[in-house]
Design a protein that fits this description.
It comes from Ideonella livida. InterPro entries: HAMP_dom, HATPase_C_sf, HATPase_dom, Sensor_HK_TwoCompSys, Sig_transdc_His_kin_sub3_dim/P. It holds the Pfam family HATPase_c. It is found in: Membrane. Its main location: membrane. This protein is α+β, with helices and mostly antiparallel strands and about 475 residues long. The chain has three domains: about 10-185, no CATH class; about 195-315, no CATH class; about 325-474, Heat Shock Protein 90. About 60% of the residues lie in helices and about 10% in strands. It has twelve helices and nine strands. The strands form two sheets. It has a five-stranded mixed sheet with strand order 5-6-7-9-8, with helices on one face. The protein has a four-stranded antiparallel sheet with strand order 2-1-4-3. A hairpin with a 6-residue loop joins strand 8 (about 455) and strand 9. It starts with 7 loop residues before the first helix and ends with a strand.
Length: about 475
């Protein structure tokens, strides 16, 4: 037994997911390098700005209060101090320059900034203060307090970039998996349809035409379905040949019984009738013996009539079914069925009995089209059984047997239909399973590559039997 091959679909998904992950990692590395360079530049600029502002503060001693306050306000508004907040108080502690308000975070970072301020970043009161002498002899107090704003904005920006990269990676992976799985499983609908078609003989040929699948697993499944369809076709063909052989054996047995009835029992009845006729002639015209002899002679005549009826049911008396007469045609099949209906009329001459009608709707040129003897006999037997069911069991008053041709001219199908106005069937599926007559009709139709269909008649009254049987190629 060969070891199982590794699955292809997981490898395809992982291969493309790896490509997306590597591309994302590369993009994250480039973005990190760029952010690192930006951070270095900002830190250097902040250090230089701090040195410049220290030098500016030292030069404030020679300025009056208004000029010094204006310059300090400019320093505070210049945002040169990245991690410090500048405050100024006079000698009495009054704030000359209060701390500037915190800048609001951008909208995408606002929820994170609010949560960070509340739970993780309490107010930092660490500071450095020194006196700033004034010309009037008093001193202001210059205070630099620790500020987390710049670092917080930078950290939140980095966090947002990381979350964006992570979201892009997840979205890319999901998109790759979606596209790959969609591409891989797009033919799955065809495979599911093929599984349903395995049970339908007419659609099973479509299973063999399944295209190549994009994934090895689905292609293996398609090959398995093709093999199953081929095996089913082979098994069905073998069963069909067996069914045809059984039907042939039944016909042979009927023919044997018909010969025995005709050669043995029929001849004895004929001899008995001839003897009774001779005996009646020897007796007086009037009298109980002559009456009894005439009655026995009539009984023999009825017995002969019954034997002929049985012979007609066992073996159709038609030259077209004689192997020595050659292959029958649609015309001879028409004659066989017309004789069948006439025989039914003779058997049941009651004017209140069922009215039988034969409708043939094929062109005159089709009368010479050959059919096989097995098919002709199958149509005859199906018609015989359908008439029996309609007239004797369904209580029908009108029975119509219809024949027509459907399909292409080169490979037509014989459409056979029997419609009656009888009691119908309450459950057609159960009738097919339990009724031997309908089961026999179904078996004969199936043996000749057809399918028996049952449906209610117009208005829900009666029953319509229908089958389409392929004819041999012309």
């Amino acid at each position: 037994m060969n070891p199982p091959r590794p699955l292809q679909l997981p490898r395809l998904v992982m291969r493309r997911a790896t490509v997306v992950a590597l591309a994302t990692c590369a993009a994250a590395a480039l973005s990190g390098l760029w952010a690192t360079q930006e951070d270095i530049e900002q830190e250097v600029e902040g250090a230089l700005a701090l040195a410049s502002q220290i030098a500016s503060v030292q030069a404030l001693a020679g300025l009056d209060d208004a000029a010094a306050l204006q310059q300090l306000a400019a320093l505070q508004a210049g945002h040169g101090l990245r991690h410090l907040r500048l405050q100024l108080h006079d000698a009495g502690g009054r704030a000359l320059l209060p701390p500037p308000p915190a800048e609001p975070a951008p909208w995408p970072l606002a929820p994170l900034d609010a949560a960070y301020r509340r739970w993780l970043s309490p107010a930092d009161e660490r500071h450095v203060a020194w006196p700033l002498p004034r010309p009037d002899g008093q001193a202001w107090t210059l205070q630099l307090t620790a500020s987390h704003e710049a670092e917080r904005r930078e950290a939140l920006g980095n966090l947002a970039g990381m979350l964006g990269a992570l979201g892009a990676t997840v979205a890319g992976l999901l998109a790759v998996m979606h596209l790959q799985l969609r591409r891989a499983f797009r033919p799955l609908q065809q495979l599911l349809q093929a599984v349903a078609q395995l049970a339908e003989r007419d659609q099973r040929a479509q299973v063999a035409r399944l295209p190549a699948m994009p994934v090895q697993e689905l292609d293996d499944l398609a090959q398995a379905l093709r093999a199953v369809a081929q095996e089913l076709d082979g098994a069905e063909e073998q069963r069909r040949r067996l069914s045809q052989k059984l039907l042939t054996l039944q016909e042979d047995e009927r023919a044997h019984l018909a010969r025995d009835l005709h050669d043995e029992f029929g001849q004895r009845l004929t001899a008995l009738r001839v003897g009774l006729t001779w005996l009646a002639r020897q007796l007086p015209t009037e009298g109980p013996l002559r009456t009894r002899a005439d009655a026995l002679r009539e009984e023999c005549a009825l017995g002969q009539q019954e034997v002929r009826r049985l012979l007609g049911r066992l073996r159709p008396d038609n030259p077209a079914l004689d192997p020595a007469a050659g292959q029958p045609t649609l015309g001879s099949l028409h004659d066989m069925l017309r004789d069948l209906l006439q025989r039914w009329t003779l058997v049941a001459p009651d004017p209140q009995g069922p009215q039988l009608r034969l409708d043939v709707t094929w062109p005159a040129a089709a009368l010479a089209r050959p059919v096989t003897q097995d098919l002709a006999l199958a149509v005859y037997r199906m018609s015989q059984e359908a008439l029996t069911n309609a007239c004797r069991h369904a209580g029908a008053k009108q029975v119509c047997l219809r024949l027509s041709l459907t399909g292409p001219t080169q490979t037509p199908h014989l459409r056979w239909e029997v419609a009656d106005d009888g009691r119908g069937l309450p459950d057609m599926h159960q009738a097919l399973r339990q009724g031997r007559g309908l089961a026999g009709l179904q078996e004969r139709a199936w043996a000749h590559r057809g399918r028996l269909q049952l449906e209610a008649g117009p208005g829900g009254r009666g029953l319509v039997l229908r089958a389409e049987l392929p004819l041999p190629a012309a």
